[in-house]
Amino acid sequence: MPKGNPDFLFALFETQRMLRLYADKLAVRHGITRAQWAVLAKLERTEGLKQSELAEMMEMQPITLTRLIDRLCANDLIERRDDAKDRRANRLYLRPAALPLLKKLGHLRAEITQAALGHLNAGEADELVRQLESIKDNIRDALLSADKKTKEPRYG
Questions:
Q1: What CA–CA distances, in Å, run from 62 to 3, 36, 44, 52, 76?
Q2: At 87, phi and psi to the nearest 5?
Q3: DSSP-derived secondary structure letter, 2
Q4: CA-based end-to-end distance of the chain
Q5: How far is residue 10's CA from residue 110's CA, in Å, rounded to a whole number?
């Protein structure tokens, strides 16, 4: 196990920040924000989520997500449907108008990926993704371990 590179976190956070800025600039082409794009992408993968589930997945305050959903509903991109089992909850679904936009956003995602990985060959890009997934797994394990430690009773 490596000792740790003091520049690792800075490089990772700075890369994420720059990717977000670039995605923000490109999303404007299609009249949406990166946050709206993220909502559409989550629903594309998992339609029928409750707003509360989506807020948790996106690590977003429910009131902030409600505003995003209101805007997407007003633009006829998603719709709220009553939950059959919980009348207090709404489930979220894509509207037909979202499908052409999601196709364009797929091209945008490919453009961002090309910009980010353009100097890597396919093998290097695959290895980078594998390493990032490994890092994500390590952090997930650390979070689970930290959760277990905080739930243990303390004596003394």
A1: 39, 14, 20, 7, 20
A2: -70, -10
A3: -
A4: 35
A5: 25
Enter the tokens of residue 72. Answer: 């997407």
The three-class DSSP label of residue 94 is strand
What gap in Å lies between CA 55 and CA 42, rounded to an integer? 11
H/E segment holding residue 112? helix 98-117
For residue 34, give the nearest of 108, 100, 116, 117 by alpha carbon.
108
* Residue type present at position 33: T
pLDDT value at residue 1: 55
Q: Are residues 91 and 48 in contact, defined by beta-carbon separation less than 8 angstroms?
A: yes
- The pTM assigned to this predicted structure is 0.79
- Tens-digit pLDDT profile for residues 24-67: 999 999 999 999 999 999 999 999 999 989 999 999 998 999 99
Amino acid making up residue 51: Q
List domains and CATH numbers for the chain: 8-119 (1.10.10.10)
Order of strands across the sheet that contains 49-50: 49-50, 90-94, 78-82
Whose tokens are 């509207």? That residue is: 95
Yes or no: say if 39 and 58 are a contact pair by the CB < 8 Å rule.
Answer: yes
